[in-house]
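User: Fold this; tokens only.

Assistant: Input:
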Amino acid sequence: MATDYDTPRKTDDDLNEDSIEELKARRNEKSSSSVDSDDFDSAEGMELPGADLSNEELSVRVLPRQADEFTCMSCFLVHHRSQLYSEKNGQPICRDCGA
């Protein structure tokens, strides 16, 4: 159930002043909520962790490292040259690992 945190909250005095008709109407609103089928449709394509994906083929195009990129020798990720922090023993280190 979604909660709107921007709406003013009622104090205990306000809750005691609600009429019985208003309380019944609120109860009917909550019980008549419908199930959103879009949630089930989007979950259908998701894979669970640990699922067997050995028969699946990847459809991602992998690009080789570009001239303006480097591989960090600490985390082994490819970064743009603007992320170069320093070189340790002649090996490039990114800002995340060097900081």
